[in-house]
Amino acid sequence: MPFICENVECRAVLARGQVKTVHEDAGWCFYCPDCKARNELKETGAPDGPIELIQPESSGLPHKVIAAARPLEDGRYAAQLRIQRALGTRGTYAVEEHWDQLDVFLNAQEAVAHAKSVAADLLNRKA
Ligand SMILES: [Zn+2]
């Protein structure tokens, strides 16, 4: 089983020989050679046997929500949510992305603030 980077924008599939596993205070992990993200590892195997490291199954697929404001032609700003979700199939391009257009605001700050509060609601609901 190869390791897979859990970073939604990366999802690199890495042969075990390609990554250097390290033991830190927080436990075993490896750093993705492509994006430098920390990926958690779990130790398995018999206590007196050789150490075997596995990637813990993450409870949900990693996702990322980005709040943004898009300028409109009439000078106003549309609040937008950009949602990236890793697909069940793993691999570098296994990311689904879509934009949600929210309300329209007079300035960019208000639009971003609105998008952020919607994003927070969304993430709370999933947790
Ligand atoms: Zn990575």
Protein model, in words:
This protein is mainly β and 127 residues long. The chain has two domains: 3-54, no CATH class; 63-126, no CATH class. The protein has one helix and ten strands. It has one helix at 108-126; strands spanning 3-4, 13-14, 21-24, 27-31, 38-40, 42-44, 52-54, 63-71, 77-86, 95-105. The strands form four sheets. It has a three-stranded antiparallel β-sheet with strand order 3-4-5, with no helix packed on it. A three-stranded antiparallel β-sheet has the order 8-9-10, covered by helices on one side. The protein is elongated, with a radius of gyration of 19 Å. The mean pLDDT is 81. The protein binds zinc ion (ZN). The site of zinc ion has 8 residues, from loops.
Number of strands: 10
**Overall radius of gyration:** 19 Å
Compute the separation of the termini in Å: 28 Å
Bound molecules: zinc ion
Tally the structural domains.
2
Q: Main β-sheet, in a few words?
A: 3 strands, antiparallel
Estimate percent helicity. 10-25%
Average pLDDT confidence is: 81
Low-confidence stretches: none
Q: Which outline best applies?
A: elongated
The number of distinct helices, counting runs of at least 4 residues, comes to 1
Q: Please state the structural category.
A: mainly beta
